[in-house]
Fold each of these.
Amino acid sequence: MSTSVKRKDAPTGGSTKAQSSKKKKFGNDGKWKTTHQKSKEQGFLEGVVSPGEIGIWVTCARTQEAKAAREVIAMFDEYAELLYGIKEPGQEEPDEDEEEDIEAAVQKELAAMKATGKEAKEGGRIFTPVKMNVACLLFVRTRPPVEPVSFVKRICQDAKIPGKQRCRYVNRLIPMTAIGKATEAGLFDVACKVLGETFALKRAEVDPPVESTPEAKAASEEMVQKVNDTLDAIRSGLPVEAPPAAYTFAIRPSIRNNNTLTRDVIIKKVAGLIDSTRHVVNLEKPDKVVLIEVYQNSCGISVVDGEYWDELKKYNLTELYGFAHKQRDEQKNQTQEVEQTQSLEDGARSKQETDQPAEEKNLEAQAA
């Protein structure tokens, strides 16, 4: 007697076709799809944020990453045209006499959204959404001429205006001027590149870590040369470049999915680069805020104006939209109160004008 195990036959009375169609109700026509494939279908690139990139971190409502990506890309495209006069490929206005094939247009847009990183780069896309392996977060890669800090600032300034709400699922926008590796050497590299544009840096802290990257060492040598040139110019009585203004500053680090860098290490390393004889820490009302975002193996830094950072709710669109709605409601209530007051005054004036002739008649009758 054979001991081999046989596969069970299909249940009698049912056809293979029926079972196949039943399976298709689940699992995308019976085909298993990877997370990468699903992300691509939603218009995402799935991957990591790499050193050398620039862009904008976007936080959003839970489980709404795909909708948030569509919203934010549409908004970014609008502002890219407004601020820089550029359009994404395929956004040119069609001829009025040309009848547009709606189905073809939709397929073209989906193909653009699903383009791989290489295809997106070759196609000249200014904004590329990247899916992160964490909830409520995505990254949007940007390309010149978009400058993330000023770009995000303008969007948030407009978000305070009543009636300017463009997004429903997007929360915060966090611009990144430069991105490096999430190591002490990578942090040094990015900090030298970004902070030197705003702050005077310490000469004693210019030497990079031993394990530093070639880029960090090059940045270090450049700063050393700049310091030496300035000293030589002073000794020779030559005019020198004005030093950076004595800004106060605060450091705001955020760490996700990374165990290499800690909050204390980040603050100590970054603050240690800034010349404390010219710049002092002010946690309440800083002139400049240093934003540091660490995610997995990437570390990004940007410097934003402290006044706008506070005024614009830390670049939180949800709060700004709420503020705009509240402001609009207050204006509406004030308008209604003014109209009611005006109506009461008009009614009283009309009554007075109506009663006055009757009083005059009574006085005439009494006199007669």
Note: Confidence is low (pLDDT under 50) at residues 16-27, 96-100.
Amino acid sequence: MTEPDPFGRGTIRTQQDRDGTFRVSGFLNCWMEASVKVLKLSAQGLPQSWITLEQAVTHYAADEVRWEAGQQVAVFHGGHNALTGQQSIITVNSIIGTQGVPRINPFDLVSGLTNPKLFVRDRNVCAYCGGHFHESVLTREHIVPVSQKGPDHWMNVVTACRSCNHRKSSRTPEQANMPLLYAPYVPSLWEDFILRNRRILSDQMAFLMAHVPKSSRLMA
């Protein structure tokens, strides 16, 4: 069967097996599937991953959701129970706490370094000229150049426009007489979850930002 998406983004195909097991057989709107993500947390409230609506439904159907927060983002309708005639309905919230051993330990995690994450960390601001640029003209700039054995690590990289990166070349800021306008830092677990998702809902952002260190550039 198909049901209209309550938020006007398309329809969702759902199905219930003969034994009463609820499952999602597919999405009819690819934009919705790709864009809407649910913030999955451990039962203790630690971020674990961004998951699709379909993945979230499997947690609800398996009775693994211990608590939920945020807004309702989808309603899934299944088949009718052969004995009671009652229809299966699963509502999905934007934030869910699930049972099980946490996959991520916040004390062991080092955020994976990618250019999109780096640019968001640095607010798309060049560390040398202070200009604000579109990400298409930004680069990952190594403070201590790779040619001088500088590591490709959060503490040795900043965002730079192409012009400043070219001018600095294979020199340190001191050698190039180009002082840094801000210092690099390693994002926290909470920041990392913000950096890795570009379509965060407002309630998800509020939840994550409440745990971001005050020293974070995201707080500026």
Note: Residues 1-34 have pLDDT under 50 and may be disordered.
Amino acid sequence: MRITLFLRRVLSADAMRRAVAGPGEGFTARDWIVVLQRVRKEAKEDNVGLIAAGVAFWAILSIVPLLIGVMAVASLVAGPAWVREQLGPLAAILPRPVARSLTDQLTEAVSAMSGQGRTLGLIIGLLGVLWTCSRGFGALINGLHVVIDAEDTRNVIRKRATAVGLTAGALVTVMGALWLVASVPRIGLRDADVVVGFALRCALLAVLAVIGLILLYRYGTDRNNADWHAVRWGAGIAMTAWAVMSVALAVYTADTGGRSSTYGTLAGAAAIATWLYMSCYIILLGAEINVEIERLLTHRAAFRDVPPEPDASGTEATPVAEPAG
């Protein structure tokens, strides 16, 4: 029910119109400059880089089990052969060393699922995936609370339940991405230009990513009054920055004289660690953007509610709002 209400609010025509218009009425370029300046200051004070490194460590331990869980479900439903066919298009959106390492690992896992007893293995595997990957999301939740300067008052059970729920959501999101990659050629693009098909895949995956980030920012933290305008903008900016970062890292690692010459056989592991670290950093920055936009909007609303004081001549002076410091 909460997810249905969330989708209605985010995808409504009024929400789309307000999102295009900006976080709020009168939100100017100067306001964006103020927000970005404060994000830079807060990111330095909160040690976002150090927090992102800690979250990335747990993400490294969680990403392979998560993807194996996705492959297990897809292998049971559609068969191992179909799963192997989809690994190529999915790997195309990742940096080459990252794609190579993950593809090799997942191919081996899918091959192991081709035998008998896949149903029992699926159940056991999914339980292990949810528990293992929830530690990664738990670390991310802790990092988000540090970034937004809020205390997580939920008990241990609620925290772990939230982390497990986010893990399940990530599992469904990745499966949806896999389905999108497989479905695009079936909607009339089989004979179209490859670039068009790839662009459509990326656009569909971007929508999934934004929705996932909105859910993370809204329900991952212990805040029931988060501003939806700020959350949408933070998620959109984070997704855009993540896409640019992934493309830039892919271009860099495409050169065999890049990290491969330095790390040798560990180039894939180094690329995965770098990609996950930068991804976590961008997600945390998105939360910083949410907080600063919300802070500016709250300050502006509070300022509007204060009646102007009369000046010496008896006329009401027009107050001038200043950004929250």
Note: The mean pLDDT is 73.
